[in-house]
Design brief:
By secondary structure, the protein is α+β, with helices and mostly antiparallel strands. It contains 6 helices and 11 strands. The protein binds FE2/S2 (inorganic) cluster. The site of FE2/S2 (inorganic) cluster (FES) has 13 residues, from loops.
Length: about 290
């Protein structure tokens, strides 16, 4: 299992633990019924509930009693019955009381909030977490360098750069003897290839390759660059930016897209440009 997977699993476990803790807090608060009752009510709950109640037995209305007394033979006097009810206070445990509607909604609200926060946290982390392997901003394995270089040349001798989508870079060839000194010893040119960032150094448009002219021509404001990304014309302030290259033991090219190298405008082109008609109508802005 990779380090990235372990980290993501760890983050997920922490989020789940946080959600469980939030739920436990909500449960504990809602299960203590005294916390929701004010002190006055609690005091009243503990006090004597009522004075003894005396209930006199009575039979019928006064009129009926008088009539009965007149008609019926005298009966022995019945003593009044006094019923005294004692207040009974029964303490009910939370378990016996069960879950009230308020407690249920409190818990449901707490659980929903915790679940939402956990999901939101995970989504945010996955978005912000730096990519440890692959993808732009990291080291991109483009494949065997010899095979890659072979793909750059056409039968008619022209060149078609190889676009590496993961690195957002064009792989271009160069001839060892003619390479400009400004590209040497800075790690951007090795084994006959360079990786140029597709982004125009003027305002950031994606710069397409122009096959007829054998150069890169920006459609936004007309900046033009040679095959190896040397500035030729337009408002661009420098050459196309490029990435540091490395090679592993299997001769695979590693494009370090986290290491971008800038170079000044080329005083002299080391690769002829243009070699044919341009792909854009005219260059806009300053030249030279
Ligand atoms: S963005 Fe390319 S020339 Fe302006």
């Amino acid at each position: 299992m990779s380090a990235e997977n372990l980290i993501l699993i760890g983050v997920a476990l922490v989020a789940i633990a946080a959600a469980a803790a939030a739920f436990a807090i909500a449960y504990r608060r809602s299960s203590d019924w005294r916390s929701g009752v004010n002190a006055e009510t609690l005091a009243a709950d503990r006090s004597e509930v009522a004075e003894p109640v005396a209930v006199a037995a009575a039979q019928g209305t006064e009129a009926a009693a008088a009539a009965d007394a007149a008609e019926a033979p005298p009966e022995p006097a019945t003593p009044a019955v006094e019923v005294v009810s004692e207040p009974v206070v029964v303490e009910v445990s939370p378990e016996e009381a069960g879950v009230t509607r308020r407690q249920f909604f409190n818990r449901a609200l707490g659980a929903t909030f915790a679940t939402f926060m956990a999901g939101f946290g995970l989504a945010s982390l996955s978005f912000l977490w730096p990519k440890l392997t692959g993808g732009f901003g990291s080291d991109v394995n483009a494949g065997n360098v010899d095979e890659l270089r072979e793909q750059l040349f056409n039968e008619d001798g022209s060149v078609t750069p190889l676009f590496i989508p993961e690195a957002r870079a064009y792989l271009v060839p160069y001839e060892e003897g003619s390479l400009s000194p400004q590209f040497r010893d800075i790690g951007v040119a090795d084994r006959g290839v360079m990786a140029l960032w597709q982004r125009c150094v003027h305002l950031g448009c994606r710069v397409p390759w122009c096959q007829p002219s054998q150069g890169f021509e920006c459609p936004c404001h007309g900046s033009k660059y040679s095959l190896v990304g040397e500035y030729f014309a337009g408002p661009a302030p420098r050459n196309l930016d490029r990435f540091v290259l490395e090679f592993n033991a299997a001769d695979e090219l590693i494009i370090k897209t986290g290491s971008i190298v800038q170079t000044p405008r080329a005083p002299v082109l080391t690769v002829k440009y243009p070699q044919g008609p341009s792909c854009i109508a005219a260059t806009v802005g300053a030249e030279g």
